[in-house]
Specification:
This protein has twelve helices and 16 strands. The protein has helices at residues 18-29, 51-61, 78-82, 88-97, 114-117, 131-140, 160-167, 206-213, 220-223, 262-285, 316-332, 349-359; strands at 12-14, 34-36, 43-47, 70-72, 102-107, 122-126, 144-145, 173-175, 187-190, 197-200, 217-218, 246-251, 290-294, 307-309, 337-341, 364-366. The strands form two sheets. Strands 1-8-2-3-7-4-6-5-9-10-11 form an eleven-stranded mixed beta sheet, with helices on both faces. Strands 14-13-15-12-16 form a five-stranded parallel beta sheet, with helices on both faces. Helix 1 (18-29) crosses helix 6 and helix 11 (316-332) runs parallel beside helix 12. The structure holds threonylcarbamoyladenylate and magnesium ion (MG). Residues 147-148, 156 line the site of magnesium ion (MG).
């Protein structure tokens, strides 16, 4: 186990073989920290029922300890050990979406230490679907508290390499399970309030939830960020995922629906590209390092040398899967300025833009 800020542990690099999962499980049982793949992003795991392990997670991430952790489980029976008032809605959602990228919030039982919930009387619970994550939870017999395995303020890791960049020397082991499938964190829905409320958008959408449990609301701070209103998920108030360079999003002013004629869409896309290129050329001529984020179908608009491709217009999931990696690429390139197309009209647009807008500090240029 490490002490605060120490940077000198020998971090073991493990595979997702059953032998290596056993090594990782042993580390967790002994109070250590292991990063592991999930279907959303890599998590930084420790024993959720141990205040010391939770404390070590905060120290390794350099994260404020009032920001509660999600408890990862491998079977639904565990929920009744951790939480109370398990509503009918909770049962329906667990049945429909677990294992998978949905986190539910319920009133906590006393077995869950305050150190894990940041002092809240509720607990966030999720059953991930990644086989290595499930195997690790099962084999260790430990409920695993796991935030995303990035240093606080950096984009969440979607590969083991990203984890190693941030966590080498700070944690006991990293399980490499290859690149993740979804790339943005789980949807969080609060079931401890009267109306189920989405605290963080993700792959499981409002519509998917409402089809099963009726009305679901959205934490108002997600729609109109207001510095005077506290988001219900404490983690949503921090400036997350910010690249070192100044990121701006360039967006068309009008809504482009599926019924918009093709020429009109193409016109809008060209107008956005024009604006991005004007901004790009100006900063380039001033000697800055500049990068452009756009889907692969729009690569012909831009200077290939400075284009970082982010998925495909035909599938929002490919954009989500690449987003955090693209932001890290900007940092690696030492970008001073970054200009990104908007992804709001794509599949998963709401969840993607929630992350991109934060990374941009809500800097949007309308065309
Ligand atoms: O996809 C995910 O959920 C990933 C993977 C590793 O499972 N985990 C993740 O954890 O994103 P983290 O710690 O980066 O984000 C957890 C979010 C934070 O915004 C936190 O404030 C919120 O969940 N949260 C946790 N417990 C809560 C609670 N009891 N009430 C309200 N929000 C809570
Ligand atoms: Mg995080």
């Amino acid at each position: 186990m490490q002490d605060n800020n120490s940077n000198n542990i020998q971090t073991k690099l493990l595979t997702d073989s059953s032998e290596d999962i056993s090594v990782a499980a042993e580390i967790l049982k002994n109070g250590g920290l292991v990063a592991f793949p999930t279907e959303t992003v890599y998590g930084l795991g420790g024993n959720a029922l141990s205040p010391e392990a939770s404390g070590a997670i905060y120290a390794a991430k350099g994260r404020p300890s009032d920001n509660p952790l999600i408890v990862h489980i491998c079977d639904t029976d565990s929920v009744s050990e951790l939480a109370e008032n398990i509503t009918e809605e909770a049962k329906i959602l667990m049945e429909a979406f677990w294992p998978g990228p949905l986190t539910i919030i319920l009133p906590k039982k006393s077995i869950v230490p305050d150190a894990t919930t940041g002092g809240l009387n509720t607990v966030a619970i999720r059953m991930p679907s990644h086989p290595a994550a499930l195997a690790l939870i099962r084999e260790s017999g430990v409920y695993i508290a796991a935030p995303s395995a990035n240093l606080s303020g950096r984009p969440s890791p979607t590969t083991a390499h990203h984890v190693a960049e941030d966590m080498n020397g700070r944690i006991d082991a990293i399980i490499d399970g290859g690149p993740v499938g979804i790339g943005i964190e789980s949807t969080i829905v609060d079931l401890s309030s009267d109306v189920p409320t989405i605290l963080r958008p993700g792959y499981i959408t409002k519509k998917m939830l409402e089809e099963l449990i009726g009305e679901v609301s959205i934490d108002p701070t997600l729609i109109h960020p207001d510095p005077n209103i506290r988001p219900k998920a404490p983690g949503m108030k921090y400036t997350h995922y910010a690249p070192a360079g100044e990121l701006s999003i360039i967006e068309r002013n009008e809504d482009v629906s599926d019924t918009t004629p093709e020429e009109k869409k193409a016109e809008g896309e060209a107008a956005v590209a024009d604006t991005i290129n004007t901004l790009y050329n100006k900063k380039k001529s001033e000697g800055f390092t500049v990068k452009i984020l756009a889907p692969s179908e729009h690569s012909h608009f831009y200077n290939a040398e400075d284009l970082i491709s982010v998925g495909s217009t035909s599938s929002g999931i490919t954009v989500a899967a690449r987003l955090y990696g693209a932001l890290r690429d900007c940092d690696d390139a030492g970008a001073d300025f970054i200009y990104s197309e908007s992804f709001k009209d794509y599949e998963l647009g709401g969840a993607i833009m929630n992350r991109l807008l934060k990374a941009a500090g809500h800097r949007v240029i309308y065309v």
